[in-house]
Structure to design on (145 residues):
């Protein structure tokens, strides 16, 4: 599993030029599922995500998590994070999970984040989406299992 986390002041997802979801301050999370990922990878990633200290405390140090600041999470599936561009000019996506497994683990991750007490907005799995965000900092972190 691979996720890109961006601290945002706001983020939104549009599908077919219509607003699908929106968050205020929190984290935009782009998530890719690998072919060999399991529920254990989801558990690890969700625990890391909600507890990662990416927000500033009163001293300006990144000491607070999305839980601490009562932030929101926008979770968007993005299989292209597993693009292999080492050969040729067309990316290969063979490391990415098949759509059924990817969707199952994506939905599981959204539910697990909600279960931790964080408000979650999502994209639409498998759809062409337009993602808008205001990166705060900028702060961008890559996590891999």
């Amino acid at each position: 599993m691979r996720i890109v986390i961006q601290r945002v002041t706001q983020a939104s997802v549009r599908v077919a030029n219509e607003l699908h979801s929106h968050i205020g301050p929190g984290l935009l999370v782009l998530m890719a599922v690998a072919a060999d990922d399991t529920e254990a990878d989801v558990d690890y990633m969700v625990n890391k995500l909600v507890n990662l200290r990416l927000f500033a405390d009163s001293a300006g140090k990144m000491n607070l998590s999305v839980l601490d600041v009562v932030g929101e999470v926008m979770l968007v599936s993005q299989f292209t994070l597993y693009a292999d561009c080492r050969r040729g000019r067309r990316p290969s996506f063979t490391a990415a999970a098949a759509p059924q497994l990817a969707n199952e683990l994506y939905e599981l991750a959204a539910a697990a984040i909600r279960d931790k007490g964080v408000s979650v907005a999502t994209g639409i799995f498998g759809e062409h989406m337009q993602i808008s965000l205001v990166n705060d900092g900028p702060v961008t972190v890559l996590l891999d299992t």
